[in-house]
Amino acid sequence: MDSRIIFHIDVNSAYLSWEAVYRLQHGAKIDLREIPSIVGGDSKKRHGIVLAKSIPAKKFNILTGETVYSAIQKCPSLVVVPPNFERYLVASNALIDLLREYSPKIQRYSIDEAFLDYSNGDRPWENVAYEIKERVKNELGFTVNIGIGPNKLLAKMASDFKKPDMIHTLFKNEIKDKMWPLPVEELFMVGPRTKVKLNNRGIFTISDLANLSRDYIYSWLKKPGLLIWDYANGIDNSRVRSDPLPVKSIGNSTTTSFDVDNRREAHMILLALSEKVSMRMRAIDQYAYVVSVGVKNTNFFSYSRQMKLDVPTDCTNTIYETAKKLFDEMWQGEPLRQLSVSLSDLLDNNFYQLSFFEKDNKKERRFDKTLDRIRGKFGPESVFRSCFLYSGINPLIGGVMMEEEYPMMSSII
Amino acid sequence: MLKVLMKPIEMIAWFTKDGYPIPLRYRLMDEEEKNIVIRVNKILFKEEEKIAGNRMLLYRCESLINNSLKIFELKYEIATCKWFLFKM
Question: Inter-chain contact A95–B54, Cβ cutoff 8 Å?
Answer without folding.
Answer: no
